[in-house]
Amino acid sequence: MAKYFDVHPDNPQRRTISSVADSIRSGALVAYPTDSCYALGCRLGSRDGIGRIRSIRNLDDRHHFTLVCQNFAQLGQFVHIDNDVFRAIKAATPGRYTFILPATREVPRQLLHPKKKTVGVRIPDHAVAQALLAELGEPLLSSTLLLPDEEEPMTQGWEIKERLDHVVDVVVDSGDCGTEPTTVIDFSGGELDIVRRGAGDTTRFE
Description:
Blueprint: E1 3-6, H1 14-25, E2 30-33, E3 38-43, H2 47-57, E4 66-68, H3 72-75, H4 83-91, E5 97-102, E6 118-122, H5 127-136, E7 140-144, H6 157-164, E8 170-173, E9 183-186, E10 193-196
Parallel strand pairs: 1-8, 2-8, 4-6, 5-9
Antiparallel strand pairs: 2-3, 3-7, 4-7, 5-6, 9-10
Helix pairs in contact: 1-5
């Protein structure tokens, strides 16, 4: 059974966040809130976590996982960014965007797109996610909590606990955080490509 934590959306309880971070360090798979839907997350190098996310979401090896980062300095350790892209991403973060970029050697091979050697990165604008990332001191390997054959993600922590009780280890509930996933922008091919129009405003990139 999954552990369930009720966390204040604006002022997350430090002791609770510390407990969740300890669970992640120990290999736990968590369902946690972001500024754009709930997400599944695990430690960066967790092969078991990656496998479980793939299984829950029925993902193939072409799926872009996302490294959810605390800040721009952390993000820069895991992807290659040229000056023009740097300015564009900097202006849009933190926010409801995922950026696909060429990965550095810091990114485990199993996370990379098999042909492009790219990975998704984002910096959320959400107090609970930010508190968790600060406590961890490293990115969370993440994927939107969208189940196979369903059009929208679940929005309630109690519902996630009920439905995924035996496939995740921790559920962090801070209330409804919406059903619209991030806007996904691919900078890896030399030209900007809006892959998915989601919660982030695309006009700044058009």
